[in-house]
C-alpha cells in the first residue's frame, strides 16, 4: 500500500525483531492515516533532495516499542514519527534544512543515534493534534553523553 508517491506501508512497518513482525505489519487504520501524514513529510524531503529516503523505524506496535526501549509516550506507536536518513546527504545538513528552510510543520526534529562523532539518523514527528501544540516545533539533538539538547522550541533559538 502506498502512503505517498515514494513510500509504502511496508517501509514504515518493517522490523528486524522477527517476533513482532506480523503484529507490526498490520497497524490499525488510524495508525495508517497518521503514517500517510508522516510519509508526506518525508516526501517533501525526498522531492527536495531527489535522493532516496531510508526509513529506519516508523510504526512500532506497543510490544515492539517496549522491546526496543522506546518511550511509553513514543509517537512511533501511533504512526506519527519516523527515524530516517537521506541517501548520500549529510544528516546534519538535512536536519538543518528541515527546520530552517523546508516549511515542514513538525512536532519534534531530533538529530540522534551518535556513534564515533557522527549522527546515525534523524527523528521526525507530526505536530498537532498528534503532539501537544506547546510541544510542537522542537529541534533537538540527542546522544548518550549529553542527553537531549534543545536547539529550538516555538521558533526561538535556545
Topology:
Elements lengths: L1 E3 L2 E2 H5 L7 H4 L4 H21 L3 E5 L4 H6 L13 E6 L4 H12 L3 E7 L8 E6 L11 E6 L3 E7 L2 E2 L1
Parallel strand pairs: 5-7
Antiparallel strand pairs: 1-2, 3-4, 4-6, 5-6, 7-8, 8-9
Mean pLDDT: 92
- Overall geometric form: globular
Strand content: 25-35%
User: Which assembly state applies to the chains in this document?
Assistant: single chain
Order of helices and strands: EEHHHEHEHEEEEE
Helix segment count? 5
Give the spatial strand order of the biggest sheet: 3-4-6-5-7-8-9
| Unreliable stretches covering 5 or more consecutive residues | none
DSSP, total strands: 9
Q: In terms of structural class, how would the helical and strand content be classed?
A: alpha+beta
| Radius of gyration, in angstroms, nearest whole number | 15 Å
Q: Mind describing the biggest β-sheet?
A: 7 strands, mixed
Q: In whole angstroms, how far apart are the ends?
A: 41 Å
Helix content: 25-40%
